[in-house]
Recover the amino acids of this structure.
């Protein structure tokens, strides 16, 4: 850029003309000037000192420093000073410690299977809870349920009694926790269409892809029957003596623009989350009324894709979230609209990376981090646990 030379500016001033005054007038002018200068100096000094004291920064003087410090230094609940890093930290924490080990569905085939599976619990890791999958993603059930919909649809894959599961775990000194998937159910809607997504024009059943490409229906949180079914399942489970019930899969399937044309705008509307939070609160009430506690599990890869509808802290009654990082799933990469997140490091490195990406999504809740994956070794799990603790979480689930 070129600058134009405008030349030197010349400023002209008029000289004041004091000629023509008498000697007396000159003397009077000099005296008046002296008085005015003296008055200005006195007033300036009187005002300047309070202003200087007022504008002193912390540390400029001993007296002002102690006074200001007591008003501005943040302290914790014990009155101890909090460092700037701690005061600004947004890392979610757990109010109470929750350390658990998760079993597989085949581990609860009978009491002996459970006893054998508990031998895999890592020693020295202060594991207090054992999570057992009773209703899994997809819709299958792995206990002897008495629910009408379950018994009439062939969903039950294992007939171990809930009381036997609770007893077998309690006998080994652990607290039993039930895992229940909710709306990731593609089996039951095949038998009860009113639980699925239905088109607005003729009420036909919606499936997520072409039937020849493996398209399947989904259980809908907009269906009262579907909500009642899941609520009945958690009521049945919580009555059996489980210390806690972890409910997962409060999610919507992926809808394409063409799907919205068939299903209506409500499936993608800004307030669709209310269907999930309302269902979660109903289940919370049932579980709490039976003397158990509810926890909410969310999948880290879902959060990375923006599927965080259910995480509404102002609406949800449940306040504890388990963040599930499935190492098998993320090993293939997580694909969002315009970004591909690759996880090609060690299990510990991948968990650290995922925590950095999604921990803000759960910052309003008490949090436990779960690390899952069928191909992850016990040593990898322990390395990952150290990474979780190092990140700032003292609650975790292995398996």
């Amino acid at each position: 850029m070129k600058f134009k030379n405008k030349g030197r500016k010349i400023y002209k001033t008029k000289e004041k003309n004091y000629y023509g005054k008498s000697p007396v007038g000159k003397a009077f002018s000099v005296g008046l000037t002296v008085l005015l200068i003296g008055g200005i100096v006195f007033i300036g000094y009187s005002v300047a000192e309070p202003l200087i004291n007022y504008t002193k920064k912390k540390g400029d003087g001993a007296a002002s420093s102690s006074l200001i410090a007591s008003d501005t230094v943040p302290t914790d609940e014990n009155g101890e000073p909090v460092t700037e890093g701690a005061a600004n930290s947004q890392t979610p924490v757990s109010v109470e410690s929750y350390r658990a080990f998760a079993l597989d569905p085949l581990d609860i085939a009978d009491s002996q299977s459970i006893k054998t599976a508990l031998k895999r619990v890592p020693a020295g890791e202060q594991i207090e809870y054992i999570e057992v999958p009773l209703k899994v993603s997809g819709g299958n059930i792995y206990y002897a349920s008495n629910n009408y919909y379950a018994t009439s649809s062939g969903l039950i894959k294992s007939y171990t009694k809930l009381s036997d599961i609770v007893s077998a775990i309690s006998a080994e000194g652990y607290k039993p926790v039930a895992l229940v998937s909710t709306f990731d159910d593609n089996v039951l809607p095949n038998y009860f269409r009113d639980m699925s997504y239905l088109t607005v024009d003729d009420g036909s059943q919606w499936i997520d892809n072409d039937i020849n490409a493996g398209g399947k229906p989904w259980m809908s949180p907009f269906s009262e029957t579907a909500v009642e079914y899941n609520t009945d399942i958690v009521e049945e489970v919580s009555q059996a003596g489980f210390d806690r019930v972890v409910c997962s899969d409060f999610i919507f399937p992926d809808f394409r623009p063409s799907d919205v044309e068939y299903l209506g705008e409500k499936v993608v509307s800004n307030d669709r989350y209310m269907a999930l939070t309302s269902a979660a609160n109903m289940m919370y009430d049932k579980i709490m009324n039976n003397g158990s506690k509810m926890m909410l599990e969310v999948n880290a890869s879902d959060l990375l894709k923006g599927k965080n509808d259910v995480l509404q802290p102002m609406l949800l009654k449940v306040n504890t979230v388990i963040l599930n990082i499935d190492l098998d799933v993320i090993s293939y990469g997580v694909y969002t609209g315009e970004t591909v997140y690759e996880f090609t490091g060690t299990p510990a490195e991948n968990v650290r990376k995922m925590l950095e990406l999604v921990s803000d999504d759960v910052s309003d809740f008490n949090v436990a981090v779960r690390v899952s994956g069928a191909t992850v070794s016990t040593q990898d799990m322990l390395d990952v646990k150290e990474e979780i603790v190092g990140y700032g979480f003292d609650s975790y689930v292995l398996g």
Observations:
- The chain is about 35% helix and 15% strand.
- Residues 23-54 form the longest helix (32 residues).
- The beta strands are 99-102, 129-135, 175-181, 244-248, 293-299, 320-326, 334-335, 340-341, 366-372, 396-398.
